[in-house]
Write a structure and sequence with these properties.
This protein is elongated. It starts with 22 loop residues before the first strand and ends in a 10-residue tail after the last strand. It is α+β, with helices and mostly antiparallel strands. It has a five-stranded mixed sheet with strand order 2-1-5-3-4, with helices on one face. The chain has one domain.
Length: 169
């Protein structure tokens, strides 16, 4: 891990980065994790040719390991907040942009937060979920970059609408 450096967004492989507009949304209530492409209408088919779709089985497995953990860490964090803190958190959507680094075997190495959501607890839920998942086995060799690592750029948005009485007392 010595010398491990983030890659500029838009370079490398992995999930299309935030500049390309693909992200994840999470709503607390019934948990919903979904992918959206802003400005693109929903249709019967998609002809996207990005790493996420070329390597869809890997990213599906990645999401299955990461998504439930992220949801738990977010719920645990939110449950510690007062009603006042919840209202402040829900004042606007919280978007965290960054980069996940895995080694060539799919082991979690590091997360770089390039743009914070403005709430450290929301940002750390991502990091904690990745550390908890720890390994994403059998990554496609095509995702491994010249430095021997897999760099996955991400944009996660939490759409949070708190209800009175939901938080810690």
């Amino acid at each position: 891990m010595k010398g491990l450096q983030p890659r500029p967004q838009g370079l490398g492989t992995g999930v299309p980065n935030a500049q390309e507009g693909l992200g994840k949304n999470l709503m607390l209530g019934p948990s919903v994790i979904d992918q959206t492409i802003p400005g693109v209408r929903f249709g019967a088919m998609s002809f996207l040719n990005t790493d996420q779709f070329i390597y869809s089985t890997f990213f599906t497995r990645f999401g299955e390991q990461f998504g439930p953990r992220w949801s738990v860490y977010l719920r645990n964090y939110v449950s510690t907040l007062s009603n006042e803190q919840l209202m402040k958190l829900g004042a606007y959507d919280r978007t965290t942009q960054g980069e996940i680094v895995l080694d060539g075997e799919g082991n979690y190495m590091k997360t770089f937060i390039h743009h914070s959501s403005g709430d450290q607890g929301v940002d750390m839920a991502i990091v904690d979920a990745l550390q908890d998942a720890n390994s994403f086995p059998n990554p496609p060799k095509g995702l491994i970059e010249d430095d021997g690592y897999i760099h996955i750029h991400f944009k996660f948005t939490v759409l949070f609408q708190p209800r009175a009485g939901f938080g810690a007392n």
